[in-house]
Amino acid sequence: MRIRYNAPVTLTFALLATTVLLFDTVTRSNLTLLLFTALPRGNFDFANPLAYVRLISHIVGHLGWEHLLSNFAIILLIGPILEEKHGSLRLLWMIFFTALVTGLVNTLFFHTALLGASSIVFMMIILVSFTNVRNGDIPLTFILVVILYLVKEIILITAADDVSQTAHILGGICGSLFGFGGGRSGRTAAEPETE
To answer: From the record, what ranges are coiled-coil (predicted)?
Structure first.
């Protein structure tokens, strides 16, 4: 029996985020704040190439172990399912796109910095509800997930906390777009889908 690196995008994402937080914890270098945080409105430096990188890299940065574990407990559960269904490159593109959208919206409209993979978690939660979609159907699981997660985030948007419900909602919207847009299955032609 051997251990297989079965979901390379999901596992590499988790390892990268863990490594950054571990490095920050051990060295107290503030690497997370310097490289893995999307800048707030008014702080974006158009002449600095790192400012553009941070629009995406913010999904790797986390405030602490509880923050990281709450995100990656879900990502490590759902990510391999999505990676098998859509393929590694397509899932990587979905993560990249969702990170860019949330980073841009935060930088353009909000006065707080943004970090963490919560938008990716919500994208994956919504997207996984489309796993067994048939043409022309809207899955009941999708409707229930939207009610449970997105409505909760809309209600909490006015809460005075450090959580970006907007990033959660944007992640959910991206997941919906990817789900309704379909996507190639990870199966080959020799592997028919079962009913």
So the answer is: none
Residues linked to residue 114 through DSSP beta bridges, in sequence order? 38
Rounded Cα distance, 146 and 166, in Å? 14
Domain count, the chain: 1
C-alpha neighbours within 13 Å on the C-beta side of residue 136 = 0
Radius of gyration in angstroms for the set of CA atoms belonging to the chain, rounded to a whole number? 17
Residue matched to tokens 């777009």:
177
187 domain-assigned:
no
Contact 62, 113 (CB under 8 A): no
For 157, the 3-state DSSP assignment is: coil
Strand partners, 132: none
Q: Helices (DSSP H) in the chain: which residue ranges?
A: 8-27, 31-35, 49-57, 65-86, 88-109, 118-128, 140-145, 151-156, 165-180
Alpha carbons 11 and 186: distance in angstroms, whole number: 17
Contact indicator for 10, 81 with CB cutoff of 8 Å:
no
Query: What pTM was estimated for this model as a whole?
Result: 0.84
CATH number of the CATH domain containing 36: 1.20.1540.10
